[in-house]
Amino acid sequence: MNAQILDGIRIRDEILQESKSRVSQLAESHRAPGLTVILVGDDPASHIYVRNKIKACEELGIRSEKLTPPATITTEELIGIVEGLNRRDEIDGILVQMPLPPQVDAKRVLLAISPEKDVDGLHPMNVGNLVTNRPGLQSCTPAGIMELLKRYRIPILGKHAVVVGGATWWANRWRSCCFISTPR
Predict the structure, then answer these.
(1) Given strand 34-38, what is the order of strands in its sheet?
(2) Which end of the chain, N or C, is surrounded by fewer C-beta atoms within 10 Å?
(3) What global pTM score does this model have?
(4) Catalytic status, residue 53
């Protein structure tokens, strides 16, 4: 078996270019999509991730906003923010950046996000759509990996994958993506 280097940056750039024209058409016919990111706390990796999301939105013409409530926020206060975003028509997507401070119940916060606005694909309705092969929002990292494999025409049928990491939610979404992408 020969090793193959997959150029994720090239594929990312292709996807961004394709998305830019789609966003432009949407903005011309209706309005630019809107994303709100909620970042609580001082996790350095989270700040980098959110900065990159906001930058990508700017490049694509997507309206974005970043909310940074204090690290002392309660679960109920954060749910209140999410519920307010759910009601705003100009907000099409909500991303609550993980990890949240220990006093915040992340599961309750994620459940509060409207499934139609759950850009991380973590709401149980979106997970259910994924595992039953129905359209819906999907977790971006596993979906991105599957897109990378698709664009390189790498078949996954009969292959084995090892997911290394401590994020159970991510590993479960990855298994789901692989499962539904494999013909039975």
Answers:
(1) 63-67, 34-38, 93-96
(2) N
(3) 0.81
(4) yes
120 tagged catalytic:
yes
Is position 25 annotated as part of the catalytic site? Answer: no
Catalytic residue among 92, 117, 118, 120: 120
Report the 3 state secondary structure along the chain: CCCCCCCHHHHHHHHHHHHHHHHHHHHHHCCCCEEEEECCCCCHHHHHHHHHHHHHHHHHCCEEEEECCCCCCCHHHHHHHHHHHHHCCCCCEEEECCCCCCCCCHHHHHHHCCHHHECCCCCHHHHHHHHCCCCCCCCHHHHHHHHHHHHCCCCCCCCCCCCCCCCHHHHHHHHHHHHHHCCC
What is the full per-residue pLDDT of the chain (184 aa) written as tens digits? 688 899 999 999 999 999 999 999 999 999 999 999 999 998 999 999 999 999 999 999 999 999 999 999 999 999 999 999 999 999 999 999 999 999 999 999 999 999 999 998 888 888 888 778 888 887 777 788 889 999 999 998 888 777 666 555 555 555 555 555 555 4
Could you give the count of Cα atoms lying within 13 Å of 153 in the half-sphere of its Cβ? 0
One of 92, 97, 117, 118 is an active-site residue; which one? 97
Query: Taking a C-beta distance cutoff of 8 angstroms, is the pair 6, 152 a contact?
Result: yes
